[in-house]
Amino acid sequence: MSLIVILKPGSTDETIDRVCGRIRELGLAPHIARGDLRTVIGAFGDEAVLKQDKLEQIDGVESVTPITKPYKLASRDFHAADTVIEVRNVKIGGSHAAIIAGPCAIESRDLLFEVAGWVKKAGAAILRGGAFKPRTSPYAFQGMGFDGLKLLREAGDEFDMPVITEVIDSRDVSRVADYTDILQVGARNMQNYHLLMEVGRTDKPVFLKRGLSATVQELLMSAEYVMSEGNHRVILCERGIRTFETSTRFTLDIAAVPVLRRECHLPVYVDPSHAAGKRDFVADLARAGLAAGAHGVIVEVHTNPDKALCDGPQALLPVEFTTLMQQLQHIATVCGKSLS
Ligand code: PEP
Ligand code: MN
Fold it and tell me: Are 46 and 156 members of one domain?
C-alpha cells in the first residue's frame, strides 16, 4: 500500500517541502504531482511505517488516502488528468496525438533520409529508426549501432522531427540518450528491470512496449519501475501479444487501449506493424488503434521493403503511408484529438 497526500488548494513550495521532508524522515520516497488546482504527493514504501504516521496532521495537508493498486505513479489515483508529454514542440497525450513513422532499422544514410523525407511530407510528427535490433536469430542483422544513431540524429535535425530509437542494454542508456529524443524499450525488454531503472534516471521520455506475453497490469508495473526512478514521462505501447492465432504475427489487443486509458494517465500508442506482421493489415489496425483512443500509432515505412534488412513484409510503402495519414487525420478529429 502507498498513500497519496492531497494538499490544500494553493499550497506553497514551503508546504510541499515540509510534507516531502516528513515523508523522507519516515524513510519513504515522496513523488510530487502538480495539478492545476491541487498538488498531490505520493508517499511510497513500507506499509507499517505509513500506518503509524499521521500525515494528515501536517499543516497544509487536506487529506490522505491509500492507493491500493500495485501501480502508484502510473495510476489515475495519483494523477487524475492525462499526462501530456512535449518533445521538441510535439505534444503527446490528452487531446494531442502524434504519428511516429520510419524504417524498422537504420540501414544506410540514403534509406533513412529517403524514408524520413516521405514520412515528414505525409504528416508524421516523429521519426523512428532502430540502431540496436533485438533479433530472434543471432545471425540476423543486428543494427548499425552508434553509427546508425548519428545518422538518425542528423535526419531528425534535417527534417525537423524528434527521433525515437530502441535501447537494449542498460550500459548504453546514457550514450543512446545523447542522440535520441525518445528512448524506446522494446517488447522483449519490458521486464528488464535494470534497463527500466536506467532509462528512469534519464530526462528523456520513455516509449515502453508491452511484452509479448505480458498482461496490462505487468506493463503498468514496468512503467512504475521507470517512474519510480524519477522519470514520469512514459508512453505506453500496445504492439500485439502472443495468442493461439497464427493469421497475424501477433494479436493486437485493441481492448488494452481503453483499459490503459482508464487505469492510467500516461499516453497510449498502438503499433500496428509488429502486431500485423503483414503490410496488408497494418492500415486497418492503425485506424482501429486511433479510433479506440490511442494518442498515436508507430508505423514502419520502407521505400524498398523486399530488400529491407529487418521486418520488410510489414513495412508500408510511402504511398500507402500517405493515404493512411489522411485517414488518421479524420479519425483523430472524430476522437477529439489534434494531430501534431
Ligand atoms: C521495433 O519497434 O522495431 C521492435 C523491435 O518492436 P517490438 O519491441 O515491439 O518487437
Ligand atoms: Mn521492426
Answer: no
Number of structural domains the chain divides into:
2
Q: How confident is the model at residue 58 (pLDDT cuts 50, 70, 90)?
A: confident
CATH number of the CATH domain containing 236? 3.20.20.70
How many whole angstroms separate alpha carbon 59 and alpha carbon 273? Answer: 52
Residues 145 and 234 grouped into a single domain: yes
The predicted model gives 308-324 an average pLDDT of 98
CA-based nearest residue to 257, from 219, 223, 224 = 219
Ion ligand 2, residue ranges at CB < 5 A: 104, 311
Quote the CA–CA distance of 212 and 307 in Å, as a whole number. Answer: 26
Q: Whose CA is nearest to atom 6 of ligand 1?
A: 186
User: Which pLDDT score, from 0 to 100, does residue 1 have?
Assistant: 63
Residue with cell 508546504: 15
Q: Kindly state whether residues 95 and 239 are assigned to the same domain.
A: yes
Range of the domain at 240: 85-339
Return the exposure string of 154-173: e unless at least 16 CB atoms fall within 10 Å of the residue's CB, then b: bbbeebebbbbbbbbebebb
Single-letter residue type at 95: S
Q: How confident is the model at residue 47 (pLDDT cuts 50, 70, 90)?
A: low
Q: In ligand 1, which atom is closest to the CA atom of 186?
A: 8
Indicate which residue's Cα is closest to atom 5 of ligand 1: 186
Is residue 286 assigned to a domain? yes
User: Looking at the whole model, is its pTM more than 0.85?
Assistant: yes
Ligand nearest to the CA of 190: 1
